[in-house]
Amino acid sequence: MANKKEVRGEERGRRKERGSERSKKDETSRGRTDRQRKQEAGEQMIRKECRGKEERQKERKNKGKRSENANMKQGGKGRPNVYNQWKEDRMIGALEEYKEALEKGAKVSVNHLSRAWGVPRATLQRRVRGEVSGGQHSSGRKPYLPEEAERELVAILKTLAQRGFPLTKRTVQQVAFDYAAKYRASQR
């Protein structure tokens, strides 16, 4: 049998060998991580560059849009419907500039004027051709009652409220309906 000291020494030697093996593994793994780190850093740079390109492309696509889902067509596809985003005085200014240019004999493009004045090109083109006589632009249905009749209706509703009649949504609708029926009958 061997001495206890010898056994302990052998165990210590084995431990040292195991430790050195472990340290070698650590060193090799560290080397791999350094390589991996470098590789990852390179990949991250490429990703950042790609992200920048993608963001620039998205910005180009969204350049004229107000927001992602504002005034989108049904189904969310295609170009957004943007109506009534211009002022009538700008349209009048563009038409006047076009007429002045014609009087001077200069040639002016409608596209250039529409961009300069911030009005729709097609609308300006129709007004220049005389297809549409300019007036107020509006989308949607025509109002059922003219503005005068609406003012009268508002006055009636206000007097009812001042005299103590409670106005709920339903009563306002009923009074408006009755008033509109009488107004239409008197206009015929």
From TrEMBL:
Disordered: annotated segments: 1-85
Protein name listed in UniProt: HTH psq-type domain-containing protein
All residue ranges annotated as the HTH psq-type domain in the record: 87-132
Comp. bias regions, Basic and acidic residues: 1-58
InterPro entries documented for this protein: Homeodomain-like_sf (IPR009057), HTH_Psq (IPR007889)
